[in-house]
Amino acid sequence: MNEAIKFSKQKFISKKTVLASMLSMLLTPVAVAAESEQTEEIETISVSGIAQSYRNAINEKRAAPTIVDSLSTADIGALPDLSVAETLERITGVTGDRFKGNASEISIRGLGPFLGMSTVNGRAISSGSGNRSVAFSQFPSELVNGVTVYKAQTADLLEGGVSGLIDLATIKPLDYGKDRLQAEIKLNYNPYQAKFNDDNGIGQRNSISYTKNFEGTSLGNFGFAIGYAGARTSSPEESYNTSSTLRNCNSDYLKDGGSNCSFKDSNAAANGGAAVDGDYYFIPNLFYYRQMESEEKRDAAIVALQWQPNDSLDINVDGQWSDRNYYEDRHDLYFDDGRRRIHDWQTNDQHALTQYSGESRISSYGDYRVRDEQYKGAGINVEWQATDNLKVIADAAYSGTHRWQTMHFVRFRSDRHFFQWQVMGSEAFPDIARVYTDKDDPEGSQVDWLSEIQDLSFFDANYEARTERYDIKDSINSHRLDGIYTFDEGFFTSVKFGLAGSSHKHKNYAAHRVTHKNALNTDTPILEQVKASCQTDWAQKDYGDDANSPVTSWATFDTHCAHALFDTSTQPDPQAPDAADINLTEDIRSIYALANFATELGDKYLTGNVGLRHVKTDVSSLGISNGYNVVTDPVTGFVSFESNDNLEYTPYTNSYSNVLPSLNLSLELADDLILRGAAFVGISRPDMWYMGAGRDIGSASSEEEFTTVEQALENKVKAKGNPYIEAIESNNYDINLSWYHESDTMLSAALYYKTFNAKFGNKAEEETITVDGQQYNTLVQGIPEVQSEESSIKGVELTVMHKFDFGFGLSTTYNYADSDFETPESGSNVTQDVRDNTVPANLAGLSKHNFTNQFYWENDDISVRLSYKYRSEYLKPFGNNLAQTNRIVDDTKSVDLSASYKINKNFKLKFQALNLTNEPYVEQRVVSEAYNRIEYSGTRYFVGVQYRM
């Protein structure tokens, strides 16, 4: 609660004694986040049980000056979930992308992650990817004691979230007010990991934290908190996948001939008409079955120092550190020629293949990937009560992420075989009914392929090895200065004003790949060397059981061992300059003013705030383009380009401003009934990977008979980003009615409506390009842009929280979101006429329905919670590639169980089970039943003991 509401509320209580008992609880100030004074006064009750964590959420929602939802505890590490992302999913309207069994990218109210904003203690968080999504795993739930989702904007909040703002809170020792030592040891059992040979499936999560306060010393009050959390966990995977490329075809090899499938009016399926009017099918370039072991090692720490030298000064210093190492050991069985000699095909009514025959090489792939990611964050916040009426707050912070990845890859291929493929539904891998050598005699030429693929000699046709690396560095330096002046009387109770600035530096070095084709030892065939030194037994038991996989094992090898047999003297350098590199600086300066007010409408109490925020953004992006010498043939006069090492560097700059007004109102219709409304203009900034400035210039040869450089450049310059792309603005309207029947009971309903321009597309635009030291004006293709087509989203949120007298309780949330936004099919390998006939997808990340239901029972010693989460299908883009097909994640659901038993005042036993029903993760492409991914990762179990004193 901010100072204005606190002050005016106190005055109003003297007139409304009937409200005194209720309001006395709501006026206890507890500082939670330095970003907004509103959150600093929100009440947090010191609790440990499930019911009382929901009571905190009810109290915080009731006391907030805008529309928020939150979950918090006073104790560090007392959030009941294994990750912050899972905690967020329990908040109404918040959904996570559940990938590899874990919640990750977060959407608010149906708007994708790119339209949201996340902070820690009110400060922007760096990202280890090309987008602005936050890896919440770098903030272990054991070290966080609160999350708040702002669904409406106030002028003093950091801009950047059209959908909302997520703020993570870490502890402030003096505000916590107690000394505490806490430690937890938790064992993890993963049945899918236990399938691996000589592996018991056991992992661990450990944490320890200590909070200590020194009050009444000669230097004032001082407190500190320090915490550590470590994890050694696994995320194995069994999956069916297809290539990222998908195309439409209508050919049948037996009727139309040819090799790779085609889409022609002359093919038999067109029946003499246009191909688009006949039957056709969508098909990937390849498909494969994956067996994967993956393990993660994560260490994280936080530190918090709080010093109050006197009653007027409050100094807080906090820091966060996280180090994550993650590897994937992939073994894949590929059918590499997914669209070769397709025949005998059948489709559903949306042109998704249900069965077909084709011809392909079969390959055994080894792919070993290691990713390291380090996060460092630190900040200092100083509050000075300058006078009885004036408070000044200064804040400075740093947030930095460094992510790097190395991939080693080796492949061995067989000769081509015919095969018969058949879809088996969304919960089973597609079947390979038969592999054979003669298309005219499938049964007579059938190969016992399931036995053949157990021997590496089957894959003796060709081979390849690769090494690939990439590197991303992202950092944000920020500062802000705020002042709050409280009036003793009048309509306006206080004003808040301030300025903020940040410098965001993003260096995203494009992945650099080197192919190794030569063996170190040329005397013995490379496959024989691998068989002798590197072949491994099949790594696990019961592969594909849950998915009814047609294949349960194949010949594999140690990828590192096989890779070492190749000449790898040439290694990739991810920091070598490349046109796809992003070297970006985004400087933001903002200034705001906010006025809080309080009055009466008849016998109703009305509070609110009105504010204005002005934001100026300066972008500088360094572009790289290929270096060429221009060569003119002395005989023909034709122009060609000759590559050189002299890359062209071009700086691009852009500056723009946004004016963001906001209005928030809160009307007490009754003692326990509050109506809130909000109207504001918000912005979201485009992801960094859209803001690169590289220009990829294609080669030109004399055979193409260009007579000028301008001709040689025509249709040859491709954009790798657009530094002139600007923030997306939205108009937002919210209304919320909440009934607070008792301290443990709340019914809340909200309506929201937003309008925005968030459709990304490509355009062609003339630019000045430098070739061989000379500048030329030419058309640049594929420049990302935010198109001016306005879209809207409307939705309903419902929340029910109630605790029964006999220990049972429930928390139910539902969000319905509907949008007229359209993401048309834009796959570059799908013909335009078929794209035009394909139903467009919706907004990235939008699920029309999102539902959570949590039942719990607890007494003084025992606590049990059963959770069900459901999210309807949603669009998941392929990164920044605007020429990829639409990828739809199927409906997802999860059943989780947690329980605890309090042994005594110091010790507690804990148990958790995630994904009890082993629900698969399923993706489809373009149309229904065109499966792109079917993945099983199993149920996970956790059991541990917690110590507190």
UniProtKB/TrEMBL annotation:
Domain TonB-dependent receptor plug: 61-161
Subcellular locations according to the entry: Cell outer membrane
Annotated TonB-dependent receptor-like beta-barrel domain residues: 454-916
One GO cellular component, as annotated: cell outer membrane
UniProt entry keywords in alphabetical sequence: Cell outer membrane, Membrane, Signal, TonB box
Signal peptide segment: 1-33
Family according to the record: Belongs to the TonB-dependent receptor family.
NCBIfam families: TonB-Xanth-Caul
Protein name stated in the entry: TonB-dependent receptor
